[in-house]
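Example 3.
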Amino acid sequence: HPVNIPRREKDFQGMLEYKREDEMKLVKNLILELKPRGVAVNLIPGLPAYILFMCLRHADYLNDDQKVRTLLTSTINSIKKILKKRGDDFETVSFWLANTCRFLHCLKQYSGDEAFMKHNTQRQNEHCLSNFDLAEYRQVISDLAIQIYQQLIKCMENILQPMIVSGMLEHETIQGVSGVKPTGLRKRTSSIADEGTYTLDSILRQLNAFHSIMCQHGTDPELIKQVVKQLFYIIGAVTLNNLLLRKDMCSWSKGMQIRYNVSQLEEWLRDKGLMTCGAKETLEPLIQAAQLLQVKKKTDEDAEAICSMCQALTTAQIVKVLNLYTPVNEFEERVSVAFIRTIQTRLRDRCESPQLLMDTKMIYPVTFPFSPSCVALETIQIPGSLNLAFLTRV
Amino acid sequence: PRPPPRPRILLKAPTLAEMEEMNLSEEEESP
């Protein structure tokens, strides 16, 4: 009877041997038919990336440039294919962004380039690619990661978009500050949202879901920061643009509500350790618009205070808010034309765009800072659920 | 003493757009 002698892990070289004719089966089972919510939910973060890299290492070890090229090309094309097919599914896009980035980091960490080897163990240094320099393929993978990132942002924006105006502007959570009727009675407010109405809580729950899934997938923390910053920009821009076009959103009480909502978003950032990611700063135009709704708007001193306070708003935006400002009761006056002229005169020397609305389609450029892994390739075992029994650990 | 490792061979890569074009033309050719 053949004796199955288990090899010690120190004998494995951290490579996966495969036959050329099994390459299609590899990308099919590992990329095209892998469901993030199915089998993949139990995998170690980045496992598909490590598996692909270990196969690549073996092709490199064989000094087979053709095998290296076809594996890389099939990998890239398969990832693009699955993202074309399921590009509107957040979990799929997030999963492949995390794995594409991990693959890119592996290509650097094990490139043999000293700049990327500083945090390697001795064993990891021994696992560097032997024969081929894949710097040009790293650029292709990086370009792919950028495309996937942009697709992820679009996906998240589509989910958040219906919630923003309702949750940030329309739904009132602060009791007692909504408008007082001329009879002196308070308007009836409700702490329970109507069915189908999005609230700030809806937005916070959705942000939680996004953050949780990205963490589960092993997305680099630096990348999560960039995603969150981008989402907060979108929330701020959509909210401000809506405010700038609606008279019913330009009142003292709305300013109060917006400031409360912004504070809740900041609390969320604090809770997730994301206060330094730049997200809060993207809300500055909205914060200043909310403050503008609440400050006094009568005297020259008021005008000076407004001009120094509203550095993140354009003149067009400040003037629009002042024009739309609606007093809460009949005792308060609208903002006078003379006051608005004073503001315009004070701001006439500003060099700025004359545009009124923020660009909600603007995406900050993304970077993928190198993030080496402490995973030891020789210890990786492939779960049977991935149907990759044709790969041999070497 | 171990001999120094021989320099790695740089593999030239197509751009992402070129890869997609090659992929599309291969899909058109195959039945």
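The CA atoms of residues 164 and 235 of chain A lie 6 Å apart. Confidence is low (pLDDT under 50) at residues 179-192 of chain A.
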